[in-house]
Amino acid sequence: MKPTHPDYEVVIGLEVHCQLRVRTKLFTPAPVTYGAEPNTATLPVCLGLPGALPVLNGPAVELAVRAGLATHCTIQPRSIFARKNYFYPDLPKGYQISQFEEPLATGGYVDVPMEGEEEPLRVRLTRIHMEEDAGKSVHEAGLSETHVDLNRAGVPLIEIVSEPDIRSPEAATAYLRTLREIVRYIDASDADMEKGHFRCDVNVSLRPHGSSELGTRTELKNLNSFRFVEAAIRLEIDRQAKVLSEGGTIEQVTLGYDADRGRTFLMRGKEDSDDYRYFPDPDLVPLVLSEERIAEIRAALPELPEQKRARFTEEYGLPGDACAILTEKRGLADFFERAAAAAGDDAKPAAQTTANWMLRDVLAVLREDDVEVQDGHLEPEGLGALIRMVEEGRVTARSARSLLPELIREGGDPERLVQERGLESVSDEGALEALVAQAIEANPKAVASYAEGDKKSLNFLMGQVMKASQGKADPGAVRKLLAAKLES
Amino acid sequence: MVADPMPTLRELAASLEAGERSSLELVEQSLTRARECESLAAFLSLREDGAREEARAADRRRAAGERRSPLDGIPIAIKDNITKRGETAGCASRILEGYRSPFDATALARLEAAGCIVVGRTNMDEFAMGSSTENSAYGPSRNPWDPERAPGGSSGGSAVAVAAGVVPVALGSDTGGSIRQPASFTGIVGMKPTYGRVSRLGLVAFASSLDQIGPFARTARDCAWVLDAMSGNDPGDSTSLPDPPTRSTDALTDALEMGDLDGLRIGLPSEYFELEGAAPGVIERVREAVAELEAAGARTVPVSLPNSRFAVACYYLVATAEASSNLARFDGARYGRRAAGAADVGEMIERSRSEGFGAEVKRRILLGTFVLSAGYYDAYYKKAQQVRTLLRDDFGRAFEECDVIAAPTSPETAFRFGEKADPLALYLSDVYTVSANLTGTPAVSVPCGLSEGLPVGLQLIGPARGDETILRVADAYQQRTSHHEARPPLAGAGA
Questions:
Q1: Is residue A150 domain-shared with residue A251, that is, in the same domain?
Q2: CB–CB contact A282 B322 (8 Å)
């Protein structure tokens, strides 16, 4: 692989904050909301009221464990919640409850498929720990006041910390995409970046090619889109390379990214680095997970994207790129498999035909409308039935294709729709023979050139017949009839 | 017959059951007594109208044969760091001025469900930091045995409220002796339950791993009764213990009624009785009390708590570390006092805290912040946690040899105001009490006589979950003695 920078090897590690898909907050049953009226989704714990005490949310723990298992981490039988102390108006208790010395999960990895590469890139994970989100400070333009919204305070997060195994901005975003796919697959998170469900901090350092020592790193904070991640890393690589090539040294600083201006800016220098005074939270007891409990969660884990891809190749003989697209989202993969099961009795060819329909026709409509397949009106069994009708010659591919946008957007029973619209293919020999005779009579030139050995003329004549039948003629039957007539 | 102006909880409950007194009469008597004793400054606020209204409701329930429990209609007082819905929870601090809690502390909610009526909120050292109530932002409470002396602290106001006969029962909180030491100074019973026995939900935290709510009363029996009513597992407190098997009031009172101590082993830690600086008069009274227990059938065994010499240091590291974090929420941003005219948010937080906290609270926040700082954490906080484990081992070994440990509650009797100007001297007087908090074990202070006219407390420490044992021993002691019937000279004033 071509190096990212000619003079330096780029070393990248990521910290991803991912919001868990639960109804209530990590330490109190206040609802997890988005876009609600400020400070309406709060209880005494969220507000840091005197005497309020945290109680751990069980379902959030289960999702965090799932995320750990899905990324090959070791789930620790005992982990500790700690307080990270700092003052900020949107941090109501004056500390964030997180995990520090003893996190929930350690030592996993994510295999990242890389475009144009045979082997995936293995990114090792240092740890996954649970923590609560902070609130939001809102500074209104022109006002000197700071407003605080604590609806987000206490929302359950996991922080997924990678080893510095990434060597390019593209690999960083590929890693993030893979990670997002995994947490979505296991229903651990909606990972909606626009809603801040999936945010990342990036550590970047450079070192001479061939060096095994790590250079001084800088941290890019709060990047909330893949595009910004890539852009910010590129800027930081260029900045560091310039400093180093001019003989300077890199300062360990924290940078922000200004998307509007397309540049990074200094958030915090090394001298301002906080002392968070972590210590175990005495209001909480150690989180203890028995082997049985972990095994239960593991058993309930759905098939993961990498496993699904391997199975689709193996079971259905689908090519790699088709597998990659169909398994990208669990909803799409499930839809595909249900449709394929309805499309034919022989699994392998039915799956291949269904894959073609999905990739060529269904996804095009979905993309146009920007909807997920499970949110459309088309039932997978409906698609399967339609494909089966095509395969059985009861409707032509062309007619079927013409019905798809309507089925996806408005729904309906394909069988009935085909009948209502009179789209059943014409395979009645008498009717077809009439159409064929008509075409031969109307196109003497084509008939002549066929006789002279131009076999392509058959296709032209086929087209004429299909046109005359308004696409309903069974193409196989037409071809057979035409060939017979022309040869005779 | 002139009624004892300071009846016990049992006596009051019995008079309610018998229909001799109404709850309204008891509440009126409490309020009158509170006003008579105003100079003792036991209360920060009284709930006159609310308490009367609740008393009338309690009387109606009784008349209708629907009383909630034998405690229905009993007036009580609570320390200012225990939340009650719709009421202030000021912790005797300026920084919580104007704050009203939207929820009830679990312990209080349970007592109210049993029918208890809160007549007022009692004075304390600010955020429970202190041993005299001198750190209250609203001035100290005074000891009814000598108003020139401190009633002890931090739950001094609750102790005075019971000692002066305002209420038969008051709630305090004990982080390093804050119930037991004032109980000892004012001649009443004060108990710190096993950590986790009483829910901390609604107790404004000082040091979360040490804090426990507990009762003050005239007798151990009264304490047991109140403990039973307010303790038990609370899913709202992650550190809450499962319900004890002996939770029912019947089982507890039966055990108490035996009053016989045959076969009971009382451990006497040499470190406690040979402590340099302990007042001879205190040690003498406690030894006499132990002799009385022996006369009741108990036998004494020498035990050793070698690491107890580190207990005070360990306590002030753990407690201040936790406090520095627990008190970070008081920033003026959401409730309580906010400094005016700050240029930005940072300055607002800084000034609100500078103006809102008193000197002792600031001292402990700074100490705790230092203890947790990078580079010092291992030497202080971590070391303190290790010492805590050693202390637990010490007590574990001691409780293999004995059933309860007897000791003084405080090395001295009530001191004069201003006598302990050096904070370190005051910290060192916690020597007998902090270990029970560090190890989570239950402990009770029982009056065992006077020394130079001032009350002395006998402390009984039990193994974790041995709350019933120490109460049983304390009850046996009180059945054989009358020290708890001694009345402070001020008690008669105006009564």
A1: yes
A2: yes
